[in-house]
Amino acid sequence: MVQEVFKSVLLSFDSFNMESFRQWLWVITRNHLYNWHRKRKPAHTLPNGASEELNCQDSETFPTLLNYEFDPDEERSKSILLKRALEMIESDFEPETWKAFWELSINKKPVNVISEELNMSAGAVRQAKYRILLRLREEIGRL
Description:
By secondary structure, the protein is mainly alpha-helical. The chain contains 7 helices and no strands.
């Protein structure tokens, strides 16, 4: 299977036009796995000519697993990238501003609760979120 995937990658590298190499590789791998699974013969043929059922779990869920349109590691990669970017920009903001952003964006607290806790206006809480998200987008663009 690995050899077949590498062969396909090599033969179709000129047509690579996706944003993510890993996503492209996942599509190729998924297609090979799907074709292999579709063509696979039952494990045992019984003397009367009937075929023994494949492992139910394997035959029912394997194609479902292949329906993912993204690299399985993509979400983990995005999470690592986001965490790194947040760490890099945190020191650029006042602790109160960062706390307002964190409570509103990450902890999903209501604006009025945050403004009372931090003794800030509701507009200042929203502004903190806006400024940090703007800076975060810039930093992720650089990474």
